[in-house]
Amino acid sequence: MNAGVEVAAESSVALRLVRELHRRQTWYESDPDHWTDYVRTQVGGELIGLRVALGVALGYEAASGDVVPAAVLFYHQWLASDAGEGVVR
What we know:
By secondary structure, this protein is mainly α. It has four helices and no strands. α2 runs antiparallel to α3 (37-57) and α3 crosses α4 (67-80). The protein is globular, with a radius of gyration of 13 Å. The mean pLDDT is 83.
């Protein structure tokens, strides 16, 4: 497992956020043509909010330009690690 994933996995907040991000991201990507513009906008905003919250849980400042890229990187590392095993994809 990636060291960053191991450290963050110890944070129950980060773990819950990454699981919720994954759940919503997977649901949203399941049938993108099905969603109305309203749903696309709402879910897109929720995904951004979850990424910011995850970045903050990982120790980044919400106003920094690094918060979302760090969350996205962590999400991809989590998916590729043992921590993401058994997650419905």
